[in-house]
Design goal:
Blueprint: H1 2-27, H2 33-49, H3 55-61, H4 65-70, E1 80-82, E2 88-89, H5 97-134, E3 139-145, E4 148-153, E5 160-162, E6 165-169, H6 170-189, H7 192-205, H8 210-233, H9 238-247, E7 259-260, H10 266-273, H11 287-300, E8 304-311, E9 322-325, E10 330-333, E11 339-344, E12 349-353, E13 359-363, E14 373-379
Parallel strand pairs: 1-14, 4-6, 8-14
Antiparallel strand pairs: 2-13, 3-4, 5-6, 5-7, 8-11, 9-10, 9-12, 12-13
Length: about 375
């Protein structure tokens, strides 16, 4: 199970790289901000879904005989398939030190991944708690406007928003309240905080992937572009608004979860405001062939669960028997009850053996998979 999760997380990272890199190179400066935002959200969702694609259900949909028959069987049914001793071959496979080192390495990688994910989760949780505690702290007054709660603080702080809450200093409210509030209200109306929460979860699960952090940075920039565009559409003077952005460029430290009026590169935001909207949304169709390519790649060797018992001719359990897939450099040993479990592809061949016993080579393609599992009991004969 640990091996499968490590492979799955790695495939998620690869999927995100394949889908996101073309966007970062060619489309992140496009002025179709809402389309760009939905594209980035879609990329993150697809990066987790594509590795789960199983071509077997696709073939079943088109009436493949093997799968259409199995899909009608009741879920409570359990099928045991016994390997035919006639498959016995003359060679014997023993566990190698290299295989043990490989499994230990996977375990170490898994531990490092979990520690990194836990650290990232705790860091983000602490920042979120700090943000929620800060919003009402030192507040002079609270006012509801257009579905938003406006918290006015006495001390100078950079304006920001979180969910339906907007925080602004008394000084900013009196001098530039209209422009700043419209900007933050745009963040609230577009529900940008939910994007931040989702991307925070993605960052936790793929903390090791630098492309995730690049994607989050691009998303933050798109949030600001989209909010700026909505402010100008409400009749705010462009020149005055841009001068205000320049004045607010140098600000106090902010909270990572919130949306900020002066967040992002001011020069880039001003450039986007002065760029005419591009109607060329067809460029985003680049995702379609890449999605098809990922589906094809992941569906070629979708792992199935292979489990069962290894026994001798008298039905006694054989512990410490090696159950290997040599070409994939994966395998396991049976437990004291002779049970084993591992993941393999339909096209793989399972090799089962132990010193003093015969060895069996079992092509998995000879056995049907039911609900992603083959229960394969193997009987070994003493030499």
């Amino acid at each position: 199970m640990k091996y499968f999760l490590i492979v799955y997380i790695f495939q998620c990272a690869v999927s995100l790289a394949v889908l996101y890199l073309p966007f970062h190179v060619w489309l992140r400066k496009e002025t179709c901000f809402r389309t760009s935002r939905m594209t980035l959200l879609g990329i993150t969702v697809l990066s987790f879904l594509l590795p789960l694609i199983d071509m077997r259900w696709i073939t079943a949909w088109f009436g493949h005989e093997e799968w259409s028959v199995l899909s009608e069987m009741p879920e409570t049914s359990i099928f045991y398939f016994y390997a035919n001793p006639g498959h016995n071959h003359s060679f014997c496979i023993e566990p190698e030190d290299g295989n043990y080192k490989y499994f230990y390495l996977l375990r170490i990688v898994g531990i490092i991944y979990l520690l990194g994910a836990m650290f990232c989760f705790l860091n983000k949780l602490i920042n979120l708690i700090r943000l929620l505690r800060f919003i009402p702290k030192g507040c002079l007054w609270i006012h509801r406007e257009d579905g938003c709660l406006i918290y006015c603080h006495a001390h100078p702080i950079p304006p920001f928003s979180w969910m339906n809450r907007i925080v602004i200093s008394e000084e900013d409210y009196q001098s530039n309240g209209q422009e700043i509030l419209k900007h933050e209200q745009a963040h609230v109306a577009c529900k940008h905080s939910w994007d931040v929460l989702w991307l925070s979860l993605v960052e936790i699960l793929q903390w090791f992937n630098p492309l995730v952090w690049m994607l989050s940075k691009d998303m933050n920039a798109i949030h600001e572009f989209e909010a700026d565009q909505m402010v100008l559409c409400k009749g705010i003077d462009k020149v005055r608004y841009q001068l205000l952005m320049i004045r607010k460029a140098i600000s106090c430290p902010h909270y990572i979860f919130s949306n900020h009026f002066n967040q992002g590169q001011v020069k880039q935001r001003i450039h986007m405001m002065n760029t005419s909207t591009s109607p060329m949304r067809w460029k985003y169709l680049y995702l379609l062939p890449l999605i098809v390519a990922c589906i094809t790649a992941y569906a070629q060797k979708h792992p199935a669960v292979i489990r069962g018992h290894v026994t001798d001719e008298n039905g006694n359990a054989i512990p410490m028997a090696s159950v290997l897939i040599p070409h994939a450099r994966t395998g396991t040993l049976t437990d004291p009850k002779g049970m084993y479990l591992l993941y393999a592809g339909k096209e793989d061949t399972l090799h089962v053996g132990l010193q003093g016993y015969g060895t069996q080579s079992i092509p998995l393609e000879d056995y049907p998979i039911y609900h992603g599992t083959i229960i394969l009991n193997v009987q070994l004969s003493k030499k």
